[in-house]
Amino acid sequence: MVYLHRPVEQLLQNIAQRGRSYERHITAAYLNQLDDAYARYFEQSKDQNTIVVLELEDLNFIEEPLHYERIRYLLEQPYIKGYHRLSVDQIRQAPVH
Description:
flat, 97 residues, alpha/beta, single chain, 3 strands, 15% strand, 3-stranded parallel beta sheet
């Protein structure tokens, strides 16, 4: 399982930039609840699953091909069962094919 994590503030900025009417009512409180729910799920299921969380912060893998290639490299690596959290610094330092 791969989870692309961004801080709530970044998510709210992305929502505002998109300007989609159906996203207008998404609040920071709701996004924080989702974040907490995912964290609980990952904690409960880490012994049965391989969970890779990428802390994207401000990385833009859509507009920055280098960011995409680094993320792709990390996702192609073998991971054992458990919880693996990769910081934005680890992503930025990942080699590129």
